[in-house]
Amino acid sequence: MALRNCSSFSAHDSLLRTHPPIIFSSLRTHFSPPVPALNPQFPANGSLCLNRRDLGLSIVAVLLHGCLHKTALAQELELERYTDAMTGFTLLKPSSWIKVDKAGATVLFEEPGKGSNNIGVVVNPVRLSSLGDFGSPEFVADKLIQAEKRKESTKEAEVIGVSERSGQGGLQVYEFEYKVDSTRGGVKRIFSAAFVASKKLYLLNIAHSDKPESPLDIQTRAILEEVLHSFDFAPSA
Predict the structure, then answer these.
(1) What does UniProt give as the signal peptide span (predicted)?
(2) Half-sphere exposure of residue 97, counting CA atoms within 13 Å on the CB side?
(3) What's the predicted TM-score (pTM) here?
């Protein structure tokens, strides 16, 4: 997901134009292979039954496919630590995702062959000491969704969840989850985290396809949430 397809960064740009830097500089399944067909036998009475051998083979096939799928997913999304000591942040990212250049992004990682799935960070100076000076997590989430809805390409946007946690040295970190349906890329699930440190706003955006025909699966979601929770301030030594 090149950021040209990432609705979250565009929304932050829109919000930046609406709210000056004194408030915010930028706030801005897959289909499983078929299980081998069973060998049903139809008795004379018309009832469907499976012999013991077919049933045993079917169970083994289902269990084996599930194990192989989880193993492949774990290998594909193995996480590694990325730290930008100069800008001052750290996070986990899938080791297979590649770093690409994008105007407006401090750093951007994309899933190979699926640029619409990406992880991006934007860092901008602000006059705030903490996110609490701007508003509650719910207030910030509302501003974020309003910015999304103002885009011509957005068909629908809704907040899924809002939370707050403590980061490095008790740092106030807001986390958001929302879903966007747009004419550019269809339905996407967005995970965002934001904090203010050293008069800078740090914003993380994780975008992943979440279309009805290929929804975000549980394993991938868990990994993306781990990335979300890993985002933190990394003061220079």
Answers:
(1) none
(2) 29
(3) 0.70
